[in-house]
Amino acid sequence: MSADFPAYAPSEEHDMLRQTVRELADAKIAPFAAAVDEESRFPQEALDALVQNDLHAVHVPESYGGAGADALATVIVIEEVARACASSSLIPAVNKLGTVPVLLSGSEELKRKYLTPVAKGEAMFSYALSEADAGSDAAGMKTRAVRDGDHYVLNGAKMWITNAGVSEYYTVMAVTDPEKGARGITAFVVEKSDEGVSFAPKEKKLGIKGSPTRQVILENVRIPADRMIGAEGTGFKTALATLDHTRITIAAQALGIAQGALDYAVGYVKERKQFGKPIGDFQGVQFMLADMAMRLEGARQLTYHAAIKSERAMHGEKIPDLTFVSSACKCLASDVAMDITVDAVQLLGGYGYTREFPVERMMRDAKITQIYEGTNQIQRMVMARQLLK
Q1: Sign of CA dihedral 46, 48, 49, 54
Q2: CA 347, CA 154: separation in Å to the nearest integer?
Q3: Helices of type H across 131-278
Q4: What would the pLDDT profile of 89-122 be if each residue is shown by its tens digit?
């Protein structure tokens, strides 16, 4: 390959990053994954380890004190953390989700004020779009932001907010002009410490139990107008542009969960003996493993392809098919993760169904990747619309 046409593969630096994150995750995150799930508690050990190694928000540009990692590097970090603990992978993933609106549309002052503490590990950043009656139909939100001099007053409740109560900052979408529909939605930065901000009890969930999911309740929350992200009425456009980049991080999480399940299943079938030999010697088991690995690698390549397009788009290049490939990789990787984790449970037999082994946790964790940041049914609608334009 010439320098003008490099090999279609991650760079040596990306491979080194993967090794570094995998070693860290195996040593500092995986040992606590079962307890985090069992106790439904925030993975503080993971946050501490990620912050100490500057891996909690690698996407933040160097100009704001961050590592300045590209989108592919961010995917690799999330993937490798998710291989050990899906809940923990939501630390770097949601930090990106919360901050991308600021990166895309925020003023320079807003970027310096909020990205710098995130880069330092002093704060986390969540994303508040969905509401109880505005999930897939996010434009149907009811949260209001009313101008009052040089402030806005916010009222409403945001649903399904990842890491709510732990994060210091929230990108909140609110209606500023009810007559304009989606074009009357504006984005703001809300701080956990703002008067009138509160959180409902944690949701009791099937999986990712270590990542708190709560309602963010806004009661007469008065914030300065300079916390508006972009111009008034551009919030929904920013929200959709954000998801074009961050659906890829959910694909990365799905890849990691699937890889963790496949790795464990491979190790198990080499050791488990029936009929006098390892069950990995049976062709039926070998075919299952081959299909798992084949589909996982296909999803990985699509995700990395999408990450490269995301990086180019973040640098201002127009990427016409970014929406399609980001939806495609999220949809494929999450479907693959669900299938692989179910197969991993099957390969472990009765043991796979118990909490003594990690694959049942991985199976429960995989399910959410088919649902959040746009259900896979919504992803298929998005892809079809892109094709039919």
Answers
A1: positive
A2: 51
A3: 235-271
A4: 999 999 999 999 999 999 999 999 999 999 999 9
- Measured on CA atoms in the order 160, 162, 165, 169, is the torsion positive or negative? negative
Instruction: Report the distance separating Cα 173 and Cα 97, nearest Å.
Output: 13
Q: Sketch out the chain's domains with CATH numbers.
A: 12-120 (1.10.540.10), 125-231 (2.40.110.10), 235-388 (1.20.140.10)
Q: Which residues contact 167 (CB under 8 A, 6 or more apart)?
A: 94, 98, 123, 124, 125, 126, 192
Place of tokens 């009811």: 142
> What secondary structure letter does DSSP report for 143?
-
Residue 7: per-residue pLDDT:
66
Rounded distance between C-alpha atoms, residue 138 and residue 182, angstroms: 9
- In this structure, are residues 118 and 125 in contact, taking their beta carbons and an 8 Å threshold? yes
pLDDT, tens only, 198-245: 999 999 999 999 999 999 999 999 999 999 999 999 999 999 999 999
Q: Buried b / exposed e across 207-235, counting CB within 10 Å, b at 16+?
A: bbbbbbbbbbbbeebebeeebbbbebbbb
- 13 carries an active-site annotation: no
Cα separation, 64 vs 266, whole angstroms: 42
> To 10 degrees, the CA torsion angle through 359, 360, 363, 364?
-140
Structure tokens, 210: 């270590």
Tell me the pLDDT tens digit for each residue of 10-27: 999 999 999 999 999 999
Q: Are strands 169-175 and 125-128 parallel, antiparallel or unpaired?
A: parallel
The DSSP call for residue 226 is G
- Strands (DSSP E) contained in the chain are 125-128, 144-148, 151-162, 169-175, 185-191, 197-199, 213-224, 228-229, 273-274, 277-278
Residue 113 host element (H or E) = helix 108-120
Of 23, 4, 5, 100, the C-alpha closest to 57 is 100
